[in-house]
Design brief:
heterodimer; A: mainly alpha; Cyclin A, domain 1; 66% helix; 0% strand; B: mainly alpha; Herpes Virus-1; two-stranded antiparallel sheet; 12 helices; 57% helix; nucleus (chain B); metal-binding (chain B)
Chain lengths: 359, 312
């Protein structure tokens, strides 16, 4: 049940501003940390003119153009995420038997949640995406072995396996171990059952024709922040509404009269022509309440459709990413870079811990 | 040891524990490996008596004396063909004659006396009693019926007994627990000395224990050999429907900020189930009625539909 879930309590936010402020905070936190520790090229360049070791109070004195040049900006972080989301989508499409949509969407949800409290510079999206997906196949019970999983990757597979296993606990911790994701897919089936039972005779064509468009919409919604802002049922309804509009069907009636069980404009006259709603003669208060609910719901649907279509327009090219990768070279967190000694040291200590636990 | 050895390849059960000895119509044994080799084409002759044999007729040797296997085999086959019962004859005398005739046939075939003639005789009897044979083919013999009846009765009895046993046991336990409490209360409240209270309780208990013990004795007499199993739980309608009860659902779904979803019962009554896939028989036997996933999907659809998340 969504209403009692951790998703509602911890991972659904009031609005885009709140999301942005979380991202800004983690971005800021990461840069501060690098400057304090001076463990990457960018930080060393920035702090080389300073007389004393860097403290957080000196932040305002820094030249912010230089900071933006040395570290990835928030916009650049978004571009990185978006590019690797498309990579992740392609990766998922390679699986045979086909990976269920719910598994893919779970992986995407993990990806989005992780980068709320974590900078792209600390944790490369390439590693993040496969780690998230590896957790998702287990959470959603799509059984694949590690060998099968990495066989769809290009490059050094052994290294990929090490990266996944090394980062898995860290990513889980970033998710606060909230591994249950409520997705729009089941809600969408529920609406279909409801429409077929209560609204089928009002539609000009079979609801089955809506499915391809709905699937495409939900696919796009995975890339956006929709799941962090709206409840899965709202997203599903928006998808169905969007598909219906494309096929020149009107579902406003379904929401106003059937779903919320009260028409907004004509409170009682409509009820007469339908037996299904004859029993729904509500008193004035309830009518008012129902009207508010359907107005709110229609507004939310519009918001979601706008949000998803805006997000779908954002495309990132490979050239942009190549530039960003070069920039990233100098501002990575060494603790998460497999080429550094720091990483090796942590790996060994992690292994040692495991051995100690066993004996 | 001799009877566990294959006469052809001389391998024995002792040397090869997985060896399987097979016997065919002629009553000579062969191990499964030799059968594999000799009867590649499905038929061949017995290496000892040269009798032509079919591979499909080989069966595992069950008795030490292979001849016995042969006889059992022949008997089964002939009984299969000639299965008349006493009701089919007008007098006991005739029935006995018939049984004796059958025994003679079996003896002749097993011991190889006038085999061809015996076979012809069997055919003749079969022809003669064709109608009766066909009728009785599907009926169980009275012996078999009796056996079935006894087995059924036994099963019923043992179920009853074990249920009674468990009920008694539980009763006994509660009684003991009560007495223990009573004793503690008495020790606390009574004006008698502690020893006196203890003694009187002990006396009372020993009388009761004897009673139950004698019952136990009776029980085990009845159930001499049958294993005492826990009786199958009796499911009431209430148990089966607990998840469909409205007030239970209300507790969970009361605050889901969306339109309410009707209870499973009323969903089934309305037209909802037409819009979903019907459950297969297999799913139904496991209790997966289609209303359950349908309702789950509907819940997912309506759950959180009116959520506002403090938007500006």
């Amino acid at each position: 049940m969504f209403h009692s879930s951790t998703q509602r309590k911890y991972w659904t936010f009031a609005n885009q501003d709140e999301l942005d402020s979380h991202r800004r905070a983690s971005h800021h936190r990461f840069i501060q940390e690098r400057l304090r520790q001076k463990d990457c090229a960018a930080a060393q360049r920035l702090t080389s003119d300073l007389d004393a070791p860097y403290t957080d109070e000196m932040w305002d004195d820094l030249d912010h153009d230089v900071v933006e040049e040395s570290f990835l900006t928030l916009r650049e972080e978004f571009e990185m995420r978006r590019f690797f989301q498309t990579m992740l989508r392609e990766f998922c499409a390679k699986f045979k038997p086909e990976m269920p949509k719910s598994t893919i969407a779970t992986g995407f949800a993990f990806f989005q949640r992780c980068y709320l409290n974590e900078s792209v510079m600390r944790f490369h999206p390439k590693n993040m995406m496969i780690t998230c997906m590896w957790i998702a196949v287990k959470v959603d019970e799509f059984h694949v072995s590690m060998e099968q999983f990495i066989s769809h990757l290009r490059g050094d597979r052994q290294k990929a396996m090490d990266i996944i296993l090394y980062n898995e606990p860290y990513v889980m911790q970033k998710l606060h171990f909230h591994l249950m994701v409520h997705l729009p897919y089941r809600s969408y089936e529920g609406f279909f059952i409801d429409i077929r039972a209560r609204y089928r005779d009002r539609l000009k064509q079979s609801p089955e024709k809506l499915r391809p468009i709905i699937d495409k919409f939900l696919d796009q919604s995975m890339f956006s922040d929709a799941l962090l802002l709206y409840s899965p049922s709202q997203i599903a309804l928006a998808a169905i509404f969007h598909a219906a509009e494309e096929l020149k069907e009107d579902l406003t009636g379904y929401i106003e009269n059937v779903l919320v069980q009260h028409p907004i404009t004509k409170p009682f006259s409509e009820a007469d022509d339908s037996e299904a709603r004859a029993e729904e003669v509500m008193d004035q208060d309830e009518a008012e309440h129902g009207a508010q609910n359907s107005i709110h719901l229609l507004a939310v649907i519009d918001e979601i459709r706008h949000h998803v279509s805006e997000s779908a327009k954002q495309v990132v090219s490979k050239d942009q990413i190549k530039k960003l990768e070069v920039k990233l070279e100098s501002c990575k967190d060494p603790a998460f870079n497999p080429e550094t000694e720091e990483y090796q040291r942590r790996l060994v200590s992690l292994f040692q811990m495991e051995v100690d636990e066993k004996f | 040891m001799e009877w566990q050895t294959c006469p052809r390849c001389k391998s024995s059960k002792y040397r090869n524990p997985s060896l399987k000895l097979l016997v065919n119509e002629c009553g000579h044994r062969l191990c499964d490996n030799c059968v594999e080799q000799l009867f590649v084409r499905g038929s061949g002759s017995c290496p000892q008596c040269n009798k032509p044999l079919k591979r499909s007729k080989f069966r595992e040797q069950f008795f030490e004396d292979a001849e016995m296997d042969k006889e059992v085999d022949v008997r089964r086959r002939i009984y299969n063909d000639l299965n008349l019962r006493q009701e089919d004859f007008s007098s006991l005398r005739e029935f006995n004659d018939y049984l004796e005739q059958v025994e003679t046939f079996i003896f002749n075939i097993v011991n190889g006396i006038e085999v061809e003639k015996t076979k012809r005789d069997i055919e003749a009897v079969k022809e003669e009693r064709k109608k009766q044979l066909q009728k009785s083919r599907h009926k169980k013999s009275s012996d078999q019926e009796l056996l079935m009846k006894i087995v059924d009765e036994e099963r019923l009895n043992s179920d009853d007994n074990s249920r009674k046993f468990f009920l008694d046991k539980r009763e006994d336990e509660t009684r003991r627990a009560k007495e223990r409490e009573q004793l503690l209360d008495d020790l606390q409240d009574s004006e008698m000395s502690a020893e006196a209270v203890w003694e009187s309780h002990k006396r009372k208990n020993s009388v009761l224990d004897q009673c139950t013990e004698s019952e136990d004795y009776q029980m085990s007499g009845l159930l001499q050999r049958s294993v005492i199993e826990e009786p199958p739980p009796v499911l009431t309608d209430n148990d089966l429907q607990w998840f469909l009860r409205d007030e239970e659902l209300d507790k969970v779904e009361g605050n889901m900020s969306g339109p309410p979803v009707a209870s499973p019962r009323s969903l089934a009554e309305k037209d909802y189930l037409k819009a979903t896939r019907a459950s297969s028989t297999l799913e139904l036997t496991m209790g997966f009625e289609s209303v359950i996933p349908a309702r789950r999907a509907l819940l997912a659809a309506f759950d959180g539909l009116y959520c506002k998340f403090n938007r500006q």
